[in-house]
Amino acid sequence: MYIIHVASECAPVAKVGGLADVVSGLAWEHSIRGNDVEIILPKYDCMRYDQVWGLTNSYNDLWVPWFGGAVHCSVWFGEVHGRKCYFIDPHSNDNFFNRGTFYGCRDDVMRYAFFCKAALEFILKSGKQPDIIHCHDWQAGLLPVMLAEIYQHHGLWRQRVCYTIHNFKHQGIFGHDILAATGLGRPEHFFSPTQLRDDHNPSVLNCMKGGVVYSNFVTTVSPKHAWEARHSNQSHGLGGTLHVHQGKFGGVLNGVDYNAWNPELDGFLPARYGINNVDDKYKNKDALRDRFWLYKSEKPIISYIGRLDEQKGLDLICHAAHYALAHGAQFILLGSASNHAIHNQFAHLRNQLGQSVDCHIELGFNEELSHLIYAGSDMVIVPSVFEPCGLTQLIALRYGTVPIVRSVGGLADTVFDKDYSDVDLGMRNGFTFNDLNNAGLESAMSRAISLYYDYKEVFRHIMLNGMKADYSWNHPGAHYMNIYEMIKHK
């Protein structure tokens, strides 16, 4: 099958969050299954050019219709760790992708509307005839709209679209100007409530809604989150549209790239280990303590690794640090804040706890260091307010690091409580809590710490259950292939 992914990110060349890992992981999984897979990305000035091999000008004279005129573009080709990638490079005074940043510009919707238009124009003019165009998040939400309304009349009539929503929080709100720019026009048509009109603000249009309405199938990144999106406020206003289109909506759990995240192969670790030599994990624990000058003792290390954002349960992360130190555990945090206020909140926590020989708080993100923390920790906490899928717990399981999570979204689909889960004992791999408060977090942390001290063999059994589970891209890859086959033959 011939598959093209259209996305704003792909790890490691252009990465802000989990979207980049999904695009990279899924593309690789499908390519090793014998499919022809390509990725179309913007050519950002700030992307990791050192991660692109053989970057060459592939299509030098692409003219993209825009506001009644046309914008001249070049399209570059390069390989990103074996993935075939095309990069759209517009030569325009708008300077769409030469901003020194991926997101955060006032005209972000205009920038990515142009990207969608340019991607389709490139597919058409270069003679590509993919079976599936897989679009990701709001940034690619207008592509299926333009495919159906414009490009199917010019030769792209047999392509089917799978649309994946990674984060409902950002949906791409816009007005008449985008309709004029892209050539979609007909505001009276698109402002219909069954088309692109935002479900809560009738004066604006919604990119993500466009993706849902016009795609052949829509996924989000875990089965639990798909249910939450339809039946709670976690769709951020799209619940009504998802209900209308429920027949083509479902959840497919993300995977983890086990080439990058595998303690048996991990070149960032002082000691590699697996199920058969799990005791070598504790050499990494010693190295982690040496790295941060933590006191060497019998205490467990509990860590938080990832973005510091409102979504992640910031107050609970802070409380977890205090609770761990007060109840016989050490605590490590590695995270980058999404704004200055959050950075200051955790700088204050660092000032409070930084003198403790049992605590280290590292603000900022360091990929190499994160590998050592996963390997050297006994437990990780993920107390999220919402979590569409979550990679932290999936990586932790692979590294024999027991997750303590709030049971929402993908966390509920992957972490099964040692005491209260209804799954088989051989699948129980962590500790969960439901209530978004200190008492809920404490209940799970208390049980985890007590088990670590009082029933070491049972704790090890929980560790090994997590290491045995397969959260690679193998199963998600198969699910997506089934979706592609289904929509291809509709």
Please summarize what this structure is.
The chain has 490 residues and is of the alpha/beta class. It is built from 17 helices and 17 strands.
Walkthrough of the structure:
There is one protein chain. By secondary structure, the protein is an alpha/beta fold. It folds into two domains: 2-255 and 474-488, 3-Layer(aba) Sandwich (Rossmann fold), CATH 3.40.50; 275-468, 3-Layer(aba) Sandwich (Rossmann fold). 37% of the residues lie in helices and 20% in strands. The chain has 17 helices and 17 strands. It has helices spanning 18-32, 108-125, 142-149, 176-182, 187-190, 207-214, 223-231, 239-244, 281-292, 314-326, 340-353, 367-376, 392-398, 409-414, 438-454, 456-468, 474-488; strands at 2-6, 36-42, 53-66, 69-80, 83-91, 132-136, 160-165, 173-174, 205-206, 217-220, 249-251, 301-305, 330-335, 359-363, 379-382, 402-406, 431-433. Strands 3-4-5-2-1-6-7-10-11 form a nine-stranded mixed beta sheet, sandwiched between helices. Strands 14-13-12-15-16-17 form a six-stranded parallel beta sheet, sandwiched between helices. Strand 13 (330-335), helix 11 (340-353) and strand 14 form a beta-alpha-beta unit. The model has no long low-confidence stretch (mean pLDDT 96).
Q: Mean pLDDT, nearest integer?
A: 96
Q: Enter the CATH topology name of the largest domain.
A: Rossmann fold
CATH class of the largest domain: Alpha Beta
Number of domains: 2
Beta-strand portion reads: 15-25%
Specify the CATH homologous superfamily of the largest domain: Glycogen Phosphorylase B
Q: Looking across the biggest beta sheet, what order are the strands in? A: 3-4-5-2-1-6-7-10-11
Structural class: alpha/beta
Instruction: Say how many strands there are.
Output: 17
Percent of residues in helical segments? 25-40%
Q: Uncertain spans, ≥5 residues at pLDDT below 50?
A: none
Query: How many separate helices?
Result: 17
Gyration radius from CA atoms, angstroms = 23 Å
Q: State the separation between the terminal residues, measured CA to CA.
A: 15 Å
The largest sheet is: 9 strands, mixed
Q: Using the alpha-carbon principal axes, give the shape.
A: elongated
Give the name of the CATH architecture of the largest domain. 3-Layer(aba) Sandwich
